[in-house]
Amino acid sequence: MKKAIYIAIGVIAASAIFLLMSFGQNNGVASVNGKEISKDELYAQMLKTNGTETLDLMISEEIVRQEAEKEDITVSDEEIEAEIAVYEEQYGGAEELDSALAASGMTVESLKEEVQTYVKIEKLIGPGIEITDEQIQTYFDENKESLGQSEQVEASHILTATKEEAEEVQAKLAEGGDFAELAKEYSTDTASAENGGELGAFGAGEMAPAFEEAAFAMKVDDISKPVETEFGFHIIKVTGKTEAAAATLENSKEEIKELLFEEQLNSEYTTWLSKKQASYDIENTLSEGGN
Length: 291
Hints:
single chain; Chitinase A, domain 3; 2 domains; 13% strand; lipoprotein
């Protein structure tokens, strides 16, 4: 939940930076048949599109900053790095997180700024939130199926454009060739080739049907014959398996508690912020029709 909030906030923040950079500049940013589109025109359009939302966010962040300062609340680099590590894991690694951030117009550094704000909110409001055993039990009863561990396979692959290339790879593997090295040499899947063809763990419905059927039928350390999908021909090596397991309250308790805490924190934050806004002297000329 938090990662979605951070990135959503970051999209707005990125827009804010662009708006600020654009303000007051008259040089053109584009032209159509000689008709120039100026930075001022671009700024006006962006201001109309999300200027109010951006400014509201900046005001809210300043309130959080000032309230944290009153309470002597700080956020250490270690706390920020710990949060970033969680999101790297959830996205499948640092590179995958970077890609997701880039697609949202963000960087890791801008994400760290949003994480810092969020941790301050947790420290300001969190101490007043109590998650009861009854709430945890209710959530578990209503979401038991989704909390369980589905069967997963961990695998690597070598993807080739033709069956002949796949059979050539298969022959080299039979002669004792190293799977990872052959993936780097042959695989057309550039996203995994440099990592020796590693795909990580996946569950049902995440891969092409023929690939998935073959992988789930294999044993650990098995290497498949060429498997054809719409992407080409795969040589699959299964490197691990996780059996399906039903959720238990004991194993799910901490995860549920964190989810409920985040839900309540977001709900409480809205109320908390409204009260703080009412107590602050806030002058917003944009909402009053200013430029």
